[in-house]
Amino acid sequence: QVHLLQSGAEVKKPGASVKVSCKASGYTFTTYYIHWVRQAPGQGLEWVGVINPSDGTTDYAQKFQGRVTMTRDTSTSTVYTDLSSLRSEDTAVYYCGRSAGAYSYLDYWGQGTLVTVSS
Amino acid sequence: SYELTQPLSVSVALGQTARMTCGGNNIERKNVHWYQQRPGQAPVLVIYRDTNRPSGIPERFSGSNSGNTATLTISRAQAGDEADYYCQVWDSSAVVFGGGTKLTVL
Predict the structure, then answer these.
(1) 23-82 in chain A: CB under 8 A from chain B
(2) pLDDT for B65-92, tens place per residue?
(3) How many CB pairs under 8 A join A and B?
């Protein structure tokens, strides 16, 4: 069965960077896109960006351009998202999710990773 | 940028029909997807491409899309349906989510 397993919670200081991972299993890794979506405490869902694990191409939400980098390791079926210059507003649960096409719906989601930014 | 508007909250009596709307300019021209998120859990896809149910989602969940409004309908509402519901579309190569609707089952 399809499973997206995310790394554990992180606590970072303002200005630092954080790297969250999402390990896929139960399907062919390179045939589905992986998205990152975040949710601040008590708030709605916010799209961060997407990576095509087949060739590593990425597309980021304009808000995060220059601060986010998504990469993948096909040998371990893992996608990473690196967010730099962290500020308190980046405190959120970060989810990875899978889609079959570049402009499609997210049919499976990871369990979420809480990133806390605090001095 | 494209905006999706959802009511903050909707209430429904147990066993009755709940309807949650998602407003957007000419949204009927887009594929609308819906997610259910229970407290402390990851979102779950309940409707894709306006009207389609993934396997495992009860037939009580249905969707429609016309004009400037897409609608998620839950018939015979149960206590377990109490959750936040988000609509989603693609626009200009970006995923757009609505602000979410909290469904309360009375």
Answers:
(1) 35, 37, 44-47, 50, 59, 61-62
(2) 999 999 999 999 999 999 999 999 999 8
(3) 53
